[in-house]
Design a protein that fits this description.
mainly beta; five-stranded antiparallel β-sheet; four-stranded antiparallel β-sheet; 35% strand
């Protein structure tokens, strides 16, 4: 009976075992069975079930006058070295004549080259002990069944990656805990109607995690989860913030290879639709970061809008004369709306979603033709392209929450008021002016009660207009760079979020 441990590579396991057999086993049978050794087996994590034997007591040999101690690495030393390649280490013991030998792998070649022992002329087995350094090219023996299982695992991983490509998600501080909870500040307002909006005065949070200009921000449309703020930036990322309680970044999504121009919440608040200058469309799960929908577009995307009543349909526009309606369920284009323009600046759905407006960059010398176009959503037919007759483009459109009116932000440093019903006439008696646009995509928005109209400005200020009188109520010096967006919270009165061209986001109250 042999108690020696033979370690070998699985490539020539049977050949080496047969060569290592010793014809004369009489000496081993007389010396080893009389030894009393306590064997303690330890299993290192990640070692694929490889056993490591540690001998804790000295071994006495009845045939010799002295005793010899077999010393091996203790479990503590083995645990400290578990960062090294544990699967390439072995424990062995050499017994020759009356002496127990401890060999390291460094002496392995010398031991294997000698065919006989100097004492008894017995062939010595090629055995070695664990060393503190990792040995490359040596693997432990793994049964055939385990080898087949391990070989099939990479194929499963590759197939899973092909089925659903994941977005590179970075979790912020306590991100998972605050994504789906209801803020204590929002709970008292959930069961009541929105109160009168007041002009915010003080700064609450200053958030500057973006390394590039912020193009768009949006509060989560679900009232219970409206503490989350979505932001899209030129730094190729989309971020979700806790903008009510902590001001921390909850998650960062790096799905795009170029600047992200547009990002929108879905109506359920569980998905984010994003598009950018890489011409890619991504619908990402907020919690897991998996891409539910992904498609390559034919043009660079600058605006995205979900249908107000059909949550699976959205419209995208950009650097193209076409505007496309997509269906998430089929990942196909439903309709194409063609116009003789070069770029779509913004899209606005009118009530009930039967009609929508697009603002373009098409202007002529004396008047603007096709600057704002009204479309029929079902038939893709143009309803009107003679809505705005000024020679300025409109980078942003916003709808009044209660009245059938909409406002167009113009590059003429004013906002024009229009009727949301045919023939979409402009109100020539009201003009909201005083701020500056100067080529930036400055956004504007109504307060939830419809009494205030807020807009950013190229000089970094935020302007608050009275909707009925068109007068400036207050001016807020919010940013040093151009303020491109300012939006009110849908639940909390007087809570405002602003962003600028320097990558900063601020929360005011």
């Amino acid at each position: 009976m042999s108690s020696s441990l033979v370690a070998y590579d699985d490539s020539d396991s049977e050949a080496e075992t047969e060569k290592a057999e010793v014809p004369n086993t009489s000496s081993r049978q007389t010396s080893l069975p009389n030894s009393s050794v306590d064997h303690v087996q330890y299993f290192a994590p990640g070692s694929l079930g490889t056993k490591s034997t540690y001998e804790m007591q000295p071994t006495e040999n009845n045939d010799s006058s002295g005793t010899s101690t077999v010393c091996e690495d203790p479990p503590e030393h083995y645990a400290q070295n578990n960062n090294i390649d544990l699967t390439s280490s072995y424990y062995g013991r050499a017994c020759s004549g009356n002496t127990a030998l401890c060999m390291s792998y460094k002496n392995y070649e010398q031991a294997s080259s000698s065919s006989t022992n100097s004492g008894n002329g017995v062939s010595q087995k090629r055995i070695y002990k664990d060393s503190t350094t990792a040995i490359k090219g040596i693997r432990p023996y793994i049964p055939k069944r385990l080898r087949q299982e391990n070989a099939s695992m990479p194929e499963k991983k590759e197939s899973n990656q092909r089925e659903s490509s994941d977005c590179d998600v970075k979790l912020g501080i306590s991100g998972e805990q605050t994504l789906r909870r209801i803020s204590e500040l929002i709970k008292p307002y959930l069961g009541s109607k929105y109160k009168l909006t007041e002009v915010p005065k003080s700064l609450i949070f200053y958030m500057s995690k973006h390394s590039g200009p912020v193009n768009e921000i949006q509060w989560c449309p679900v009232r219970e989860q409206s503490h989350m703020l979505l932001s899209a930036s030129m730094d190729k990322t989309v971020k979700v913030w806790d903008a009510v309680d902590t001001g921390c970044c909850l998650k960062t999504y790096s799905c795009h290879s170029c600047a992200v121009r547009a990002a929108r919440w879905s109506s359920c608040g569980r998905r984010i639709l994003s598009g950018g200058f890489d011409s890619m469309l991504h619908l990402t799960d907020v919690e897991t970061g998996k891409q539910i929908f992904s498609s390559k577009n034919e043009f660079r995307i600058s605006v995205l809008k979900f249908h107000p009543t059909e949550s699976n349909i959205f419209i995208c526009g950009g650097f193209s004369p076409e505007v496309k309606a997509w269906d998430i369920r089929t990942s196909k284009v439903l309709r194409v709306y063609k116009a003789a323009v070069q770029q779509t600046l913004d899209i606005l759905f009118l009530p009930e979603g039967r009609e929508f407006l697009t603002s373009t960059d098409a202007v002529s010398r004396d008047s603007a033709d096709r600057t704002i176009i009204a479309w029929d959503f079902q038939s893709a037919a143009k309803i009107s392209n003679q809505i705005f007759h000024e020679r300025y483009t409109c980078p942003n459109l916003t709808l009044h929450p209660k009245e059938s009116m909409f406002v167009a932000q113009t590059n003429g440093n004013y906002m024009a008021l229009f009727s949301a019903q045919r023939p979409y006439r402009i109100n020539k008696k009201k003009r909201y002016e005083g701020h500056k646009v100067e080529g930036f995509a400055v956004g504007c928005e109504f307060s939830p009660d419809g009494t205030l109209l807020v807009t950013g400005s190229s000089d970094g200020k935020v302007f608050f207009y009275n909707y009925h009188t068109a007068r400036i109520i207050r001016t807020l010096s919010a940013h040093k760079e151009a303020c491109v967006s300012a939006i009110f919270h849908p639940v909390l009165p007087s809570l405002l979020a602003t962003c600028d061209w320097a990558g900063e986001i601020k929360i005011w109250q």
